[in-house]
């Protein structure tokens, strides 16, 4: 190109300016603010100007890590995310494999149904599931013959119901991605394995699986990132975290601390903890992406 | 024989997966007494629009529908413009901080935006003091945050599409006397349109589905609520108006569903393009 390097840089930044402005102001600056707020005692009185800001240093972190409820919620978040991730992957992978063995119209029917589940907004999906599992008017209780049984009252059935809903709307992504991955394996590779006398199981285990490994890694980590920060489903289905907050996960906990209890400093602290955890997972994600061949 | 079994099983799974949506639409058309019947049946002989009428009049759903549409469409339009320019800069130009910017774009996508509710709440509060339209309780605040959330991925994805357009094309256009501006909007823009479709759909859906930020920002201005919040109006501890809730859910889901089905092929090729980069 005929333009000088310096001119290129200037044009480039002119093009980038709107994006940098938005991202700087509404992502970078809030991240900085998040950390800052987490270092202060920032409650309703400080917000309204009734009390001076008090710098706590790591006081909020100390308080949080010493709080029994935080560790309970943390454990629940990890367990809930684990169940969702494993469920999503198993259902998605199983259906992706089945999808390769059926005729096109059957596959399209499955994919269309999955597309519907995938595209349902989280709020709508949650309310539909609540209605289906309603104690008195729900279709599921009618079929099972257990009218009056409340799925959302007991802590564990409530978590199970939310997990099922999350799996319902997130397995399509895994299924479609893995299906595309399986389809992308060249037929010659599988034929060669068959010619060499490998059994169907042997081919799946020693040829297909290793070839799919990068894709499996990517969908796994993507699922972990998504399921770790579920908010809407928990909030809607357990009415803000369940009775006495026993269905809380970190995201909802942070929201309740900040906006229900007006402990903005503590809410921000939980936010920082979550961000650090997820960035840690992201590092693995980046390495997985690199291995699967994506280049910067 | 085995294929028949597999196919039968797959069809049953498809039916189970689609069932919640079927139930939603069915319940939206059921008369009220059938909805609160103790023996719900998976059909209705007396379809009615009562629930839709109730949702649209009692809860003013039409207004919230428009609010959601306005937010989502403005986010999409701005995100197309801004991400197209940024992606062009990042692929067509060589400058010092380019790689740093790319890495930051990737990292920023991983920040859980849910964690940012507290700082963003205070940011919007102070923005509102000087520019009310972008402050709390106004749709502008939602437009701003969803724009910010959708940009990193949109830019990241569009890079692949811009890069796929041969540089020779730009040289040819320059030789033919086209200005850089004309090349940008009349040659490059139409060529990356498939990528723009894919990113737009994702930005639209993010803005459309958002519950958390609508709940955080739109505190007291009921007239500025969006659909996800409005749906909560019907959810009461003891007496849920399930008919209206299902009608509302249907109204909320249909646009996304149509969108998804219409562009699914482009979406998949778009995603593939982004990955191939």
From TrEMBL, chain B:
Entry keyword Iron-sulfur: no
Limits of the ABC transmembrane type-1 domain: 65-263
Main location: membrane
Topology of the protein relative to the lipid bilayer: Multi-pass membrane protein
InterPro entries: BP-dep_ABC_trans_perm, MetI-like, MetI-like_sf
Domain of life: Bacteria
Residue spans crossing the bilayer: 9-29, 64-90, 102-123, 143-162, 183-205, 242-263
Keywords: Cell membrane, Membrane, Transmembrane, Transmembrane helix, Transport
Localization of this protein: Cell membrane
UniProt record similarity statement: Belongs to the binding-protein-dependent transport system permease family.
Protein name: Sugar ABC transporter permease
